[in-house]
Write a structure and sequence with these properties.
5-stranded antiparallel beta sheet; 14% strand; 3 domains; alpha+beta
Amino acid sequence: MRLSTSWMYQQSVSTMLNQQSALAITQNQVSTGKRINVASDDPAGAGQVLSLNHILAANDQYSGNIDSATNRLSNEQTVLSSAGNLLDSVRSMAIQGINGSLSGSDRAGMATQLGQLRDQLVQLANAGDSNGNALFAGTSTTTTPFVKGAGGAVGYAGNDATQMASIGPGLKVPTSDAGSGLFMNLPAGNGTFAASAGAANAGTLVVGANSVTDPAAWSVGAAANGGSYTITFGAGGSWTATNAGGTPVLDSGGSPVGGTYQDGGSISFNGMTVAMNGTPASGDTVRIQAGGKQDVFATLDNMIAALQGGGSDAQLANDLNRQIESLDQAKAGVTNTVVSIGGRLNTLNQQQSVYQDLKVTYQQTLSSVQNVDIYTAISNLSVQSAALQASQQAFAKIKATTLFDYIK
């Protein structure tokens, strides 16, 4: 068998090139710390690395959304807590205003304070998040949601939509609460109906607490009478009730409802009860109206007007009692929203914890697939470097050997 010089050269060069290629790959692994630097290093592993990187990127995006949502909801919770405290202050002042021993100047001073509190409430309702976007404008975040009109009334310029944050595949959490539901479209009275004394009443009757005591009877009666009633008093506290059309209200047996009211008692029919105190004059009335709406700013305006109106103690008490009922509806809405925000923040915290745990798991899996065992790689680098040097030295000796060496 003849081994030509050309063949030996080719074999030696081919061996050295392969060793140089392997050495270069190992050097790259040692310098980058990665086993897979290009897809050709491990096609299957490269596909797994790509998939894991996509999952990690999506998780990072969801985590960022959670952080933004948490910041926004925390801001909203803080603002609403302040608004709730302000409404508590208004309520205390309104109750104080019912005190018949207050002078006209005392009531005027209270009206001034209520005006300041109303302006503070407008400011809170127009609060923004850390990015300057309005908290209570729905999705119209660049709009100032609550604006005073020429007459001083506050209007709503936002919308009723809710902002949502995507915090997982198919999982969204509301990150806003429209101001229309929080401050504007609030149920009047006790939330079902409002009972108010007639403006022309001549007696000392004051309408107190009222409520639905039998929802089924209330629903039937409201459907039959349009949810509107007028209680009219006669001599000796006798009373009758008519509906919006002036027709007498009938009980379940078909007889007109009515009776005799006594000071400090209550009147009940059609599933509702209205407590009262004082003595009505003949012809005095109490109006019951269901389904009314009133914004919280109008409630404060009405309180101010009542304190500045100079009416009788009974008129002032009736006016402030009705506004306190509306104020309680606003406070209940704020409180319920704060509780809801707490639940949403809890969901966000739990989901963020899940992503933190998943991130560790995915990164460990990615490391096991993509990263190289640095100790093994350094050992391989030493072995491959020595082998390449040996091949180069052997080739140098083969290259220097000729037939004349044997002739000698």
